[in-house]
Design goal:
The complex is a heterodimer of chains A (282) and B (377). By secondary structure, chain A is α/β, with parallel strands linked by helices. Chain A has two domains: 193 residues, P-loop containing nucleotide triphosphate hydrolases (Rossmann fold), CATH 3.40.50; 81 residues, no CATH class. Chain A contains eleven helices and ten strands. Chain A starts with a strand and ends in a 6-residue tail after the last helix. A two-stranded antiparallel ribbon of chain B has the order 1-2. In chain B, helix 12 crosses helix 13. The chains are: A alpha/beta (282), B mainly alpha (377). The interface between A and B is medium-sized, with 39 and 28 residues. The structure holds adenosine-5'-triphosphate and magnesium ion (MG).
């Protein structure tokens, strides 16, 4: 078995005339923490959405553990309108357009940049519901409580996850009543409840102060070890990225402009240039 | 530990309350005149409660704004009537006057009831395939359209040998034909309606509180998050739609039993709106709300406001009371409810013993405080 967990090949996402992700290729290996950075609007979230089945990319392929999970090439109207590269390269590959739940089932879980917790549910229910996918039950057995053992297991595992995240004391509170930082933690707990092997975090430290950011970094390393995870994260907090990631990809206007270790990225003039353009809002 | 004890206590309370309700019902049915308006309201109320709860499962708990309920009730009512009608009636001249009835079988009450649900569910599964890919308003329009198509289909001449065309169906097994098992004694009809509806509603409540119910709520709260957490949107929506329609079908079948005759023309869009109104007034996302609102709605419609329609009740020489005036007052009441209780009677909460206990505890505290004389501000 090779070490590649996630591989994107020439992924392009074009919305009308906007090329949000432009011929992006990257690779994430087992056990790594890899960061995806870039200025606002660079196409980072869109790249995540192409991996997780939210969007169908216009062109390119995505592999998970060396298995092709997403594939497309420009066709129909997009054939003429396509502004990206490699339009012919994947013409002989049968398009694969999975739904997000199929991707999650494979073992890829994610969090959202703009927190998307289930707002009518408690902290406990938010995590418990994410366990639904892997539970061995059907609608009949669940309705008539023939799945009591399975339900019990889900409850226990949920409590354990909440305990680990220090969220146990809030378990019966509405998820949306939590402070912002804890909501982000809860989203991570919920993603972990789907039992992923690859965790995609979209700006997990957004809105956190330096102390909380540092804690989060430690926490990410900790869950990575504990659950044998691979982590691919989008982040704007440079201290977090530089301190905790093994490798970094930098994109600007949808295009990959640099990749390498934190030290290499910090010294890369292209990166500095891309960031200087927007440096004054940091 | 304490929580589990409380839960057990609550379940006991519920069981006792339900048993008491059924006993009271039985006593009432044995002692009071069966033609009493009270029984009519209770029967129709509990039948509507079932269809309202089934609609709430879709609209309130899964977040699917569907308006097909009358259509599925129609399927249920027809399936039940046709299957339970004695063969001698079908082959005779009295019902299928203009057609040769094509359905040569006769089933008992229970198989007919179950099949009424099953056929409605099968139709829902087929309709759901294209329709459930639509969102909000589009879904509402599409389901409304399908319900109307179903009604037209059932009235269509070509369907005559099955549905008797646009004519009424009657002489099937109505509520008076229900017997206590293994005897020839009539089953108390109101009790029967309460039992069947009660079991169905209990199953829906069990479903809502199961893992699948949580998945439905996740879809309602945030589809994108639900999908990202591995919940297959289409599968779960279809499931909710099919189950909801199954119970709408059963409720339609019971309506047919209650009415003695059934005709497609009755199951118009207006009927769906009535059910929607019950759901909204009771509270979207509250099963108990739907039940309470259903009884209130039927009682107002059939009983409490009837006096407004009688011009003989006019006093002071003002001629405002006349046939149809009831509807005016009714609309005003509904507007007031919607304006002042915008979330319905129950909001999205459920009846709970804990809340009742808390209420009495507060009451006691207040009483104790006022006895002490010192108003603590
Ligand atoms: N569904 C969509 N339709 C049209 N354009 C879109 C869509 N989604 C994203 N875009 C465009 O794609 C570009 C990249 O957006 P994206 O959200 O991926 O940026 P980002 O790198 O995540 O930025 P941020 O740091 O602000 O989160 C933006 O110009 C955005 O307007
Ligand atoms: Mg983003």
């Amino acid at each position: 078995m090779s070490d590649s967990v996630l591989r994107m090949e020439d992924v392009t996402m074009q919305f009308g005339g906007v090329v949000a992700v432009n011929n992006l290729s990257l690779e994430v290996n087992r056990g790594e923490i890899v960061a995806l950075i870039g200025p606002n609007g660079a196409g980072k979230t869109t790249a995540f959405n192409c991996i997780t089945g939210v969007y169908e990319p216009t062109n390119g392929q995505v592999f998970y553990e060396d298995k092709l999970i997403v594939a497309n090439h420009p066709s129909g109207k997009m054939k003429k309108a396509y502004q990206g590269m490699n339009s012919e390269k994947y013409i002989h590959v049968k398009p694969i357009d999975p739904t997000p739940d199929q991707i999650t089932k494979l073992g890829i879980a994610r969090t959202f940049q703009n927190i998307r917790l289930w707002k009518s549910m408690t902290v406990f229910e938010n995590v418990l519901t994410a366990k639904h996918m892997r539970a061995r039950q059907n609608v009949f057995s669940a309705t008539f409580r023939l799945n009591a053992a399975e339900e019990h297991r889900m409850h226990e595992e949920t409590l354990a996850l909440l305990e680990e995240q220090n969220l146990l004391q809030f378990k019966d509170d509405l998820a949306t009543s939590l402070p912002y930082g804890l909501q982000r933690r809860l989203e991570i707990a919920r993603a972990l409840a789907t039992e992923p092997k690859l965790l995609l975090l979209d700006e997990p430290a957004a809105g956190m102060n330096p102390q909380e950011t540092e804690d989060l970094g430690q926490f990410i390393v900790q869950i990575k070890e504990k659950y044998d995870l691979t982590i691919f994260m989008i982040e704007h907090h440079m201290d977090l990225v530089m301190r905790f990631s093994d490798r970094i990809y930098v994109i600007d206007f949808g295009k990959l402009i640099a990749k390498g270790t934190p030290a290499e990225i910090q010294a890369n003039p292209k990166v500095i240039e891309a960031y200087l353009g927007v440096a004054d809002d940091e | 530990m304490d929580l589990r004890k409380d839960k057990k206590k609550d379940m006991l309370c519920t069981a006792v309350a339900l048993a008491a309700m059924f006993i009271v019902l039985l006593v009432m049915e044995l002692t009071m005149k069966s033609t009493s308006i009270l029984f009519t309201v209770m029967k129709k109320g509990v039948i509507y409660a079932l269809v309202a709860v089934s609609m709430n499962l879709l609209n309130g708990f899964t977040g699917l704004f569907s308006l097909g309920q009358a259509g599925f009730m129609l399927i249920g009512a027809y399936t039940y009537s046709i299957l339970s009608m004695p063969v001698s009636v079908k082959m005779g001249e009295s019902v299928y006057k203009y057609y040769d009835c094509a359905i040569g079988i006769e089933l008992g009450i229970f198989p007919s009831l179950i099949l009424a649900g099953v056929i409605a569910a099968v139709f829902a599964a087929l309709i759901g395939l294209p329709v459930l890919r639509l969102k909000s308003d589009y879904l509402a329009i599409a389901t409304l359209g399908f319900a109307e198509i179903l009604r037209a289909l059932f009235q269509w001449d070509a369907m005559g040998p099955v549905t008797n065309g646009a004519n009424v169906l009657r002489q099937y097994k109505d509520l008076t034909k229900v017997k206590i098992p293994f005897t020839n004694i009539q089953f108390p009809p109101t009790l029967f309606c309460f039992l069947v509806s009660g079991i169905c509603i209990a199953i829906i409540v069990l479903l809502i509180n199961s893992s699948y119910g949580r998945a439905f709520k996740a879809i309602r709260d945030d589809e994108i998050a639900a999908e990202a957490m591995g919940i297959n949107l289409f599968k779960h929506k279809e499931m909710s739609f099919v189950i909801s329609s199954f119970f709408a079908g059963i409720s339609g079948a019971m309506l047919a039993m209650f009415q003695y005759t059934v005709q497609a023309a009755q199951f118009k869009t207006a009927m769906t709106y009535e059910i929607l109104l019950i759901v909204v007034i009771g509270g979207i996302g509250s099963v108990t709300g739907s039940c309470i609102a259903s009884f209130l709605f039927i009682a107002c419609n059939e009983w409490w406001l009837r006096f407004l329609d009688e011009s003989s009740n006019n006093i002071l020489g003002l001629n405002i009371l006349r046939s149809g005036f009831r509807k005016v007052v009714f609309s005003i009441i509904i507007m007031i409810i919607v304006l002042f209780f915008s979330k319905g009677i129950m909001g999205d909460r459920e009846f709970s013993w804990a809340r009742i206990r808390a209420f009495f505890a507060r009451f006691k505290k207040k009483a104790a405080a006022s006895e002490g004389g010192e108003p603590n501000v």
